[in-house]
Design goal:
Number of helices: 6
Number of strands: 7
Radius of gyration: 16 Å
Order of helices and strands: HHEEEEEEEHHHH
Shape: globular
Distance between the termini: 37 Å
Structural class: alpha+beta
Strand content: 15-25%
Largest sheet: 7 strands, mixed
Helix content: 40-55%
Number of domains: 1
Length: 184
């Protein structure tokens, strides 16, 4: 993608996320506290995120620009603030977090596929490359639709979490470790 393409998509992200995730503010009393572009020297690490906070839970919408990823992490707040240390795998001493795609996959027994192709360590390098190219193309051509899909999935599958119930977090983290082949 060219820099002009990326700038146009950043604008779409900034305008679309507050609209389609507004239900967090209206229905669940979350606050949109920031939309931040972290533009780092190494382009593959650049990302933009929108952060929503309630008293108990943080929800972010994160577009990893160089990584061609679009994720929605949810995590426990510490004293109403974003934790300094966060783990999606259940590491001791870290605040607990889960990814929306993992929650959806677990709840639906894999019947609902992630909106972007998953790139895992068990794939060949060639297949990883093909999937990364497909992710880049989907984000370039369908970013708004992908954001809308994520919002609808959050609304459909995360009601209890959005209300502050994190009792399912350990189970989802265990499942996440299994998917990504992580031992702790």
């Amino acid at each position: 993608m060219s820099d002009d393409d990326i700038e146009e998509l950043i604008g779409k992200f900034r305008s679309t996320v507050p609209k389609v995730f507004q239900f967090l503010e209206v229905d669940y009393n979350y606050d949109l506290v920031q939309i931040e572009l972290e533009d780092v020297e190494y382009r593959k690490d650049t990302h933009i995120s929108a952060r929503y906070l309630s008293g108990l839970i943080g929800v972010e919408v994160v577009w990893g620009i160089g990584q061609s990823s679009l994720s929605v992490p949810m995590y426990e707040l510490v004293g109403g603030k974003v934790p300094e240390k966060l783990s999606f795998y259940g590491h001791a001493g870290f605040s607990r977090g889960i990814q929306l795609h993992t929650l959806v996959e677990f709840i639906t027994n894999g019947k609902v596929e992630p909106p972007l192709p998953r790139i895992t360590s068990d794939l060949s390098f060639a297949e990883m490359g093909r999937r990364a190219d497909r992710c880049t193309e989907l984000i370039r051509t369908e970013l708004v639709d992908l954001i809308q899909i994520q919002a609808e999935r959050l609304r459909t599958y995360s009601h209890d979490v959005l209300l502050g119930d994190t009792s399912l977090f350990p189970t989802i983290q265990e499942y996440h470790r299994k998917i990504w082949h992580v031992d702790i």
